[in-house]
């Protein structure tokens, strides 16, 4: 079975078909979060630190670190701040250093700027996940050498120079191309985590069924692990958490092994733990029983993070001298 191994300084997380679903916390991302971007512009990392601790307490096995901030005030004084290549590398380095000083989960370095990916790789201890490479020729030639040099896994997004296709067969072909090109750099399929691109169900009625079929095809024919931006499926619709909570177990049943998502939402995390139990990825139902206690504690008004801490439900376990994170 394909296993993608991520590491922090003290913890190993394995993404795989016979492993609990891997939750990659998405909240450390200034894109679309004006308040967070404004804080970072002032070198204020308090929200980042709070988000890191809360996401891990709620069950994130990995934390995504995105450095895509826009520093409007600095830009007005210094035109260099209009260039992401100038802004993101030092910010990515600082974010990675601060987060891994607080929590012991592996990181996912998330940027469209190659220099920021490199800065994150230099700052990270262990074996982070890199997000991402696409099928675009320039991106392949820039990112894959970094992946090979640092011997880390990478998210492969199923679009190329022609854009994002509505045809899942085309997206599969792009994923296959990336796996093949990665092999030219000595990168194994187990270190490719494919994002098949989840489309909003509100815009395309068949988006859910298409992604389930594509995930199964990626598992059966390419043998690769998969991930996605889970909330994309519900974009633009009311009752988004209910849709997400239904989507995730269905995606897990189709073969999806991880998702970049908000772990602070109890409905989604309950659905994932139930799916782990039903897929026989929860030894003796221990995680489900712990989570049931957490849900009970939340009835008294505690948040998911507070109830998790009170129930002693922080990540635990071990493998090869390291603690093994479970969802």
Keywords:
alpha/beta, 327 residues, three-stranded mixed sheet, 11 strands
What's the SSE blueprint?
Elements: E1 3-7, E2 11-16, E3 22-28, H1 34-41, H2 46-58, E4 62-66, H3 72-77, H4 84-102, E5 107-110, H5 114-123, E6 129-134, H6 137-150, E7 154-157, H7 168-184, E8 192-195, H8 207-222, E9 225-226, H9 240-254, E10 258-261, H10 266-278, H11 286-298, H12 304-310, E11 323-324
Parallel strand pairs: 2-11, 3-4, 3-10, 4-5, 5-6, 6-7, 7-8, 8-9
Antiparallel strand pairs: 1-2
Helix pairs in contact: 2-4, 2-12, 4-5, 5-6, 7-8, 8-9, 9-10, 10-11, 11-12
In a few lines, what is going on in this structure?
The protein is 46% helix and 15% strand.
Give the biggest beta sheet. Answer: 8 strands, parallel
Our measurement of the CA-to-CA distance between the termini, rounded to an integer number of angstroms, reads: 19 Å
Strand percentage, roughly?
5-15%
Q: Over the alpha carbons, how many angstroms does the gyration radius reach?
A: 19 Å
Unreliable sequence segments: 313-327
Widest beta sheet: strand line-up: 9-8-7-6-5-4-3-10
What structural class do you assign from the helix and strand content?
Answer: alpha/beta
Mean pLDDT: 94
Question: How would you portray this structure in words?
Answer:
- The protein has 327 residues and is an alpha/beta fold.
- Helix 7 links the parallel strand 7 and strand 8.
- Helix 2 packs across helix 12, helix 5 packs parallel to helix 6 and helix 8 runs parallel beside helix 9.
